[in-house]
Amino acid sequence: MSEETKKCVYIHTSGVEAPYRAASPFFLATTAALMDYDVSMVFTIKATGLLKKGVAETLQVKEGGEGANLQFFIDQARDAGVKFYVCAPSLDLNDVTVEDLIEIDGVVGGTAVNEMLLEADLVVSF
């Protein structure tokens, strides 16, 4: 890797309706952060609902209630330094306010998201 820090952006669109899709973006973002990448996750469409206080603790990623809940993956990402951003229009779509969410690093609009994507070395969408 070069001297310049590489940037990764993970766009997460799936929410509580598809818990089997919830953990992978956090897992990959965590891995990239541990590889010394500057990593951001952008939550949009239904994914914003995953960040609602109390949801992650109850959401089982694996059907049948086995294995880690989503909070485990969120905690790992946070501990690794992954930044969480919420797309502004998705707040209304999910009937939530910023106060309803766990700690995030910011609310972003379309311009900010596009700038993040243009500056990134890697963009992954789920």
Automatic annotation (TrEMBL):
Q: Which residues cross the membrane?
A: none
What single Pfam family name could you report for this chain, choosing any that match? DsrE
**Highest taxon above the source species:** Bacteria
This protein is called what? Sulfur reduction protein DsrE
* The species this protein was found in: Kyrpidia spormannii
The organism's taxonomy opens as: Bacteria, Bacillati, Bacillota, Bacilli, Bacillales
